[in-house]
Amino acid sequence: MGRALAGLLALAMLAGCGRAPPPTEARYHLGEPWRQGPLWAYPREDFALNQTGIASLLPRRAAATLTANGERREDGMFAAHPTLQLPAIVTVTNLENGRSLRLRVNDRGPAEPGRVIAVAPRAAALLGAAGPFQARVVIDAEASRAAIAGLAGQAEALPVAAAPVGEVGREALAPPPGARGLATAAPRAARPAVQTVATSATARPPERLPEQVTQGAPRPGLLWIEAGTYFNRQLAAREAARLSGGRVEPLGVAGGPRGRQQQFRVRTGPYRGLAEADAAFARAIAVGLTELRLVVD
């Protein structure tokens, strides 16, 4: 009996080993709003991203799991971002030592609020990070547009419809007395009512970026909590009153370029270290503030 059971277990293991790995086809993905801890993250296309904050490390996961855009998870030049379109190409700089890497964002994360990006373990090692670190994240707009071009998962182009033009009936009237004869224009041919634009989605394997580290000057900064930017100073002051140590800071100069409205930023800080900033961040969440960011400045 024992030998038979062992044989069945061995067969089951062999069957499991023989399963095909998940597909590695790159797909475009934006997705629905999702909860980043107690806060909500709202994915959107953004080809001008330039942000600072705290980066975290992705956990080591089995390759059998898939990323948010359907790729097999791998340890390499990959990252997860709360809101960017997937895939996207970004440069992540460790502000504490000046090292930079180009990474391919293909997943959602990090799960912990107050973090701007999560990098794969191999990328973290090349960036010289063994844990959370101060980071700047800048998107490569051209490379990111190329990364999603033609990928399945994007909304198909809508038909381009032209307004239908019907035939106009004309009646030839006799010219008034003394008028010269006028040439009669020939009726125009009706244009097609609808013109369609054909699109086709292509499948291609995920792009793998090289392990190329760029060394720059370290630029560590101070940690601040930002609680939103407002056009109305009174509304900004109301939000600042809910934030411990909150203040209102005008952005830009009043009376600047025409058509550009004055904005007001709400923030508090600076904090001596990450533990202190995280504790203040948690307190801000507890009082009901939702437009929160932990930034490096």
TrEMBL record:
Alphabetical UniProt keywords: Lipoprotein, Signal
Chain intervals for the UniProt region annotation (Disordered): 172-215
The keyword Signal belongs to this UniProt entry's keyword annotation: yes
Molecular-function annotations in GO: peptidoglycan binding
Pfam families: DPBB_1
InterPro entries reported in the protein's UniProt record: RlpA-like_DPBB, RlpA-like_sf, SPOR-like_dom
Signal peptide extent: 1-20
Occurrences of domain SPOR (ranges): 217-297
Gene3D superfamilies: RlpA-like domain (2.40.40.10)
Compositional bias ranges of the Low complexity kind: 179-193
Keyword Endoplasmic reticulum: no
Residue ranges the record marks as coiled coil: none
PANTHER family: ENDOLYTIC PEPTIDOGLYCAN TRANSGLYCOSYLASE RLPA
Protein name (Swiss-Prot/TrEMBL): Rare lipoprotein A
Source species of the chain: Roseococcus suduntuyensis
